[in-house]
Protein backbone atom coordinates (compact mmCIF):
# COMPACT_ATOMS: atom_id res chain seq x y z
CA UNK A 1 0.00 0.00 0.00
CA UNK A 2 1.38 3.37 -0.95
CA UNK A 3 2.16 5.76 1.80
CA UNK A 4 -0.42 8.15 0.42
CA UNK A 5 -3.07 5.46 0.69
CA UNK A 6 -2.56 4.97 4.41
CA UNK A 7 -5.50 6.01 6.49
CA UNK A 8 -5.09 9.41 7.98
CA UNK A 9 -5.98 9.77 11.62
CA UNK A 10 -9.38 11.33 12.08
CA UNK A 11 -9.24 15.03 12.68
CA UNK A 12 -9.68 15.80 16.32
CA UNK A 13 -12.72 17.96 16.91
CA UNK A 14 -11.68 20.80 19.18
CA UNK A 15 -13.58 20.89 22.43
CA UNK A 16 -15.81 23.86 22.89
CA UNK A 17 -14.21 26.30 25.25
CA UNK A 18 -16.20 28.30 27.72
CA UNK A 19 -16.19 31.92 26.72
CA UNK A 20 -16.88 34.80 29.03
CA UNK A 21 -20.09 36.45 27.98
CA UNK A 22 -22.24 39.27 29.12
CA UNK A 23 -25.80 40.23 28.47
CA UNK A 24 -29.31 39.88 29.74
CA UNK A 25 -31.05 36.79 30.98
CA UNK A 26 -34.02 35.64 28.93
CA UNK A 27 -37.39 37.34 29.15
CA UNK A 28 -38.90 34.02 30.24
CA UNK A 29 -36.63 33.87 33.29
CA UNK A 30 -37.25 37.55 34.05
CA UNK A 31 -41.02 37.14 33.78
CA UNK A 32 -41.06 34.08 36.04
CA UNK A 33 -38.85 35.74 38.63
CA UNK A 34 -41.28 38.65 38.62
CA UNK A 35 -44.40 36.52 39.10
CA UNK A 36 -43.35 33.52 41.20
CA UNK A 37 -44.20 32.25 43.74
CA UNK A 38 -47.96 32.37 43.16
CA UNK A 39 -49.21 34.99 45.61
CA UNK A 40 -52.82 33.87 45.18
CA UNK A 41 -51.77 30.57 46.71
CA UNK A 42 -50.03 32.44 49.51
CA UNK A 43 -53.23 34.36 50.26
CA UNK A 44 -55.25 31.14 50.40
CA UNK A 45 -52.62 29.59 52.67
CA UNK A 46 -52.83 32.62 54.96
CA UNK A 47 -56.62 32.41 55.12
CA UNK A 48 -56.52 28.73 56.03
CA UNK A 49 -53.89 29.38 58.70
CA UNK A 50 -56.22 31.87 60.35
CA UNK A 51 -59.39 29.87 59.80
CA UNK A 52 -59.85 29.20 63.50
CA UNK A 53 -58.51 32.48 64.83
CA UNK A 54 -60.79 35.00 66.49
CA UNK A 55 -60.16 37.51 63.71
CA UNK A 56 -61.03 35.09 60.92
CA UNK A 57 -64.10 35.79 58.80
CA UNK A 58 -63.75 32.49 56.94
CA UNK A 59 -66.79 30.24 57.23
CA UNK A 60 -66.83 26.49 56.73
CA UNK A 61 -67.90 26.75 53.10
CA UNK A 62 -65.25 29.37 52.35
CA UNK A 63 -62.60 27.26 54.08
CA UNK A 64 -63.56 24.22 52.00
CA UNK A 65 -63.41 26.31 48.82
CA UNK A 66 -60.01 27.72 49.81
CA UNK A 67 -58.69 24.21 50.46
CA UNK A 68 -59.92 23.06 47.07
CA UNK A 69 -58.24 26.01 45.35
CA UNK A 70 -54.98 25.30 47.17
CA UNK A 71 -55.02 21.67 46.08
CA UNK A 72 -55.82 22.63 42.49
CA UNK A 73 -52.98 25.15 42.31
CA UNK A 74 -50.60 22.68 43.94
CA UNK A 75 -51.45 20.01 41.41
CA UNK A 76 -51.31 22.38 38.42
CA UNK A 77 -47.75 23.35 39.33
CA UNK A 78 -46.53 19.96 40.62
CA UNK A 79 -45.79 21.49 44.02
CA UNK A 80 -44.78 18.33 45.86
CA UNK A 81 -42.80 20.11 48.63
CA UNK A 82 -45.60 22.59 49.31
CA UNK A 83 -48.17 19.78 49.23
CA UNK A 84 -46.28 17.98 51.99
CA UNK A 85 -46.06 21.23 53.95
CA UNK A 86 -49.79 22.06 53.87
CA UNK A 87 -50.88 18.47 54.51
CA UNK A 88 -48.70 18.39 57.63
CA UNK A 89 -49.68 21.88 58.73
CA UNK A 90 -53.44 21.45 58.34
CA UNK A 91 -53.49 17.70 59.04
CA UNK A 92 -55.00 16.95 55.66
CA UNK A 93 -54.88 13.31 54.54
CA UNK A 94 -52.15 13.12 51.92
CA UNK A 95 -52.77 11.43 48.59
CA UNK A 96 -49.67 9.24 48.31
CA UNK A 97 -50.17 8.61 44.59
CA UNK A 98 -50.51 12.31 43.85
CA UNK A 99 -47.44 13.16 45.92
CA UNK A 100 -45.41 10.46 44.17
CA UNK A 101 -46.54 11.70 40.76
CA UNK A 102 -45.61 15.31 41.51
CA UNK A 103 -42.30 14.29 43.10
CA UNK A 104 -41.42 12.26 40.01
CA UNK A 105 -42.13 15.26 37.78
CA UNK A 106 -40.01 17.47 40.03
CA UNK A 107 -37.13 14.98 39.87
CA UNK A 108 -37.36 14.75 36.08
CA UNK A 109 -37.37 18.52 35.69
CA UNK A 110 -34.44 18.88 38.08
CA UNK A 111 -32.43 16.30 36.11
CA UNK A 112 -33.03 18.28 32.92
CA UNK A 113 -31.97 21.50 34.65
CA UNK A 114 -28.80 19.84 35.95
CA UNK A 115 -27.97 18.72 32.40
CA UNK A 116 -28.53 22.25 31.16
CA UNK A 117 -26.24 23.63 33.87
CA UNK A 118 -23.50 21.10 33.13
CA UNK A 119 -23.62 21.94 29.42
CA UNK A 120 -23.49 25.67 30.16
CA UNK A 121 -20.52 25.25 32.50
CA UNK A 122 -18.58 23.14 29.99
CA UNK A 123 -19.45 24.75 26.68
CA UNK A 124 -21.07 28.13 27.07
CA UNK A 125 -20.57 31.46 28.78
CA UNK A 126 -21.23 33.16 32.08
CA UNK A 127 -24.69 34.41 31.18
CA UNK A 128 -25.80 30.91 30.17
CA UNK A 129 -24.46 29.49 33.45
CA UNK A 130 -26.32 32.18 35.36
CA UNK A 131 -29.52 31.44 33.43
CA UNK A 132 -29.22 27.73 34.21
CA UNK A 133 -28.72 28.44 37.91
CA UNK A 134 -31.64 30.85 37.99
CA UNK A 135 -33.79 28.28 36.18
CA UNK A 136 -33.12 25.83 39.04
CA UNK A 137 -33.96 28.50 41.61
CA UNK A 138 -37.12 29.32 39.68
CA UNK A 139 -38.17 25.67 39.69
CA UNK A 140 -37.72 25.36 43.45
CA UNK A 141 -39.63 28.60 43.94
CA UNK A 142 -42.49 27.40 41.74
CA UNK A 143 -42.91 24.11 43.61
CA UNK A 144 -42.79 25.79 47.02
CA UNK A 145 -39.43 24.54 48.30
CA UNK A 146 -38.29 27.63 50.19
CA UNK A 147 -34.93 26.42 51.50
CA UNK A 148 -33.76 24.91 48.23
CA UNK A 149 -34.88 28.01 46.32
CA UNK A 150 -32.89 30.28 48.63
CA UNK A 151 -29.84 28.03 48.38
CA UNK A 152 -30.10 28.00 44.59
CA UNK A 153 -30.28 31.80 44.53
CA UNK A 154 -27.25 31.93 46.85
CA UNK A 155 -25.26 29.79 44.41
CA UNK A 156 -26.42 31.93 41.50
CA UNK A 157 -25.35 35.00 43.46
CA UNK A 158 -21.76 33.78 43.36
CA UNK A 159 -21.75 34.22 39.58
CA UNK A 160 -21.25 37.54 37.79
CA UNK A 161 -24.51 39.48 37.68
CA UNK A 162 -25.49 42.91 36.49
CA UNK A 163 -27.00 45.28 39.01
CA UNK A 164 -30.39 44.89 37.29
CA UNK A 165 -30.18 41.12 37.67
CA UNK A 166 -29.34 41.52 41.36
CA UNK A 167 -32.38 43.76 41.79
CA UNK A 168 -34.58 41.20 40.04
CA UNK A 169 -33.35 38.36 42.27
CA UNK A 170 -33.71 40.46 45.44
CA UNK A 171 -37.30 41.32 44.52
CA UNK A 172 -38.03 37.67 43.86
CA UNK A 173 -36.66 36.65 47.26
CA UNK A 174 -38.90 39.30 48.82
CA UNK A 175 -41.81 37.50 47.14
CA UNK A 176 -40.61 34.20 48.62
CA UNK A 177 -40.50 35.83 52.04
CA UNK A 178 -44.03 37.17 51.62
CA UNK A 179 -45.25 33.82 50.32
CA UNK A 180 -44.00 32.04 53.43
CA UNK A 181 -44.73 34.94 55.83
CA UNK A 182 -41.01 35.21 56.59
CA UNK A 183 -40.84 38.88 57.55
CA UNK A 184 -37.16 38.72 58.49
CA UNK A 185 -36.29 37.52 54.99
CA UNK A 186 -38.48 40.24 53.49
CA UNK A 187 -36.79 42.94 55.56
CA UNK A 188 -33.30 41.70 54.69
CA UNK A 189 -33.95 41.73 50.96
CA UNK A 190 -35.82 45.02 50.96
CA UNK A 191 -32.60 46.51 52.32
CA UNK A 192 -30.55 44.72 49.66
CA UNK A 193 -32.90 45.79 46.87
CA UNK A 194 -32.83 49.39 48.11
CA UNK A 195 -29.03 49.34 48.02
CA UNK A 196 -28.97 47.87 44.52
CA UNK A 197 -31.46 50.44 43.23
CA UNK A 198 -29.39 53.26 44.74
CA UNK A 199 -26.29 51.91 43.01
CA UNK A 200 -28.15 51.62 39.71
CA UNK A 201 -29.42 55.20 39.97
CA UNK A 202 -26.00 56.52 40.92
CA UNK A 203 -24.39 54.93 37.90
CA UNK A 204 -21.81 53.15 40.05
CA UNK A 205 -20.27 50.03 38.56
CA UNK A 206 -21.59 47.46 41.03
CA UNK A 207 -22.04 46.44 44.63
CA UNK A 208 -21.04 43.17 46.25
CA UNK A 209 -23.63 40.57 47.24
Automatic annotation (TrEMBL):
Limits of the 26S proteasome regulatory subunit Rpn7 N-terminal domain: 96-197
Keyword Coiled coil among UniProt keywords: yes
Biased composition (Low complexity): 11-20
Keyword Hydrolase: no
Assigned keywords, A-Z: Coiled coil
InterPro entries recorded: Rpn7/CSN1, Rpn7_N
Chain intervals for the UniProt region annotation (Disordered): 1-24
Alphabetical GO biological process terms: proteasome-mediated ubiquitin-dependent protein catabolic process
Coiled-coil residue windows: 103-130
Gene3D superfamilies membership: 1.25.40.570
Pfam families: RPN7
Name listed for the protein in its UniProt record: Unnamed protein product
Species name: Phytophthora fragariaefolia
Amino acid sequence: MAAGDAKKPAAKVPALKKQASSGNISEEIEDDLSTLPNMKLSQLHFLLRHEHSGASTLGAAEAAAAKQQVLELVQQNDMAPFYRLVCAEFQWPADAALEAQMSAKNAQELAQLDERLADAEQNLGDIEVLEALLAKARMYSRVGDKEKALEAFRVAGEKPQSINQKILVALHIIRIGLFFSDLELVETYIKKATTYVAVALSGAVDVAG
